[in-house]
Amino acid sequence: MTVVQALLAFSVAAALLTITPGLDTALVLRTAAVEGAKRAALAAIGIVTGCLAWGAAVALGLGVLLEASTLAFDVLKWAGAAYLVWLGIGLILKPRSKFELSAPDGPAGDDFAWMRRGFLTNLLNPKVGVFYVSFLPQFLPAGAPAGPFIFLLAAMHAVMGLLWFAALIAATRPIAGVLQRAAVVRWLDRLTGGVFLAFGVRLALERR
After folding, report:
1. Residue 175 and residue 167 in contact, taking contact as beta carbons nearer than 8 Å
2. I want to staple 132 with a disulfide (CB 3.0 to 4.6 A). Which of 48, 58, 116, 187 is the partner?
């Protein structure tokens, strides 16, 4: 897989994952509906900053491991493949029928408290780190420096997140309504599960 092919494949997969509803989407939608666009934008910036922090940590750690050890690459490959397949099967067999827009409440504070809330939502969620460890390495083309390239992928994911959150904030009410439709939630979960499953199988078959 060339660098261009890796970037294109990652862009497609990451874009789909970005628009699939989750805690981050709930936080931004709820903040936009209740607190206004400004605070929602600050929460979105905090979320993306948290993703970049995880991306930097994963890129640094994986960069060292993948460059130094073939065994580490193989262990990570199989662990990541198993994790993605498990997630994919779960989403396909048991898709959600409802997407809750509620999010953890707390003292409002000043506007930038919402940025801190978004940042901590991701930084204190180890699932983000586990996901990055499982997902990003499979888009590493042969010969590319592992650490910098993995961080580049994380940065691309962050940019997609910002664009998606901007769209959510701009169209809070209609998008919120669509995301609460059972058929839409089930369709997105199953489609995302199929992506996870396909990439998990691909990762298991990938050779360094």
Report:
1. yes
2. 58
CA-wise closest residue to 121 among 15, 23, 4, 8: 23
**Contact 48/158 with Cβ under 8 angstroms?**
yes
Contacts of 193 (CB under 8 A, 6+ apart): 87, 88, 89, 90, 91, 92, 95
Token code pair at residue 107: 């003292």
The residue type at 154? A
pLDDT in tens, 17-40: 888 777 788 778 777 776 778 888
H helix runs in 99-181, sequence order: 112-123, 126-135, 146-170, 172-179
Q: What one-character-per-residue DSSP string does 12-70 give?
A: HHHHHHHHS--HHHHHHHHHHHHT-HHHHHHHHHHHHHHHHHHHHHHHHHHHHHHHH-H
User: pLDDT (tens digit, 9 = 90+) per residue, 156-178?
Assistant: 999 999 999 999 898 876 766 67
Pairwise CA distance, residues 140 & 132, whole Å:
13
Cβ neighbours of residue 31 closer than 8 Å, sequence gap 6 or more: 39, 40, 43, 103, 114
Assigned token pair, 34:
């209740």
Q: State whether the Cα torsion 87-88-93-99 is positive or negative.
A: positive
**pLDDT above 70 for 64:** no
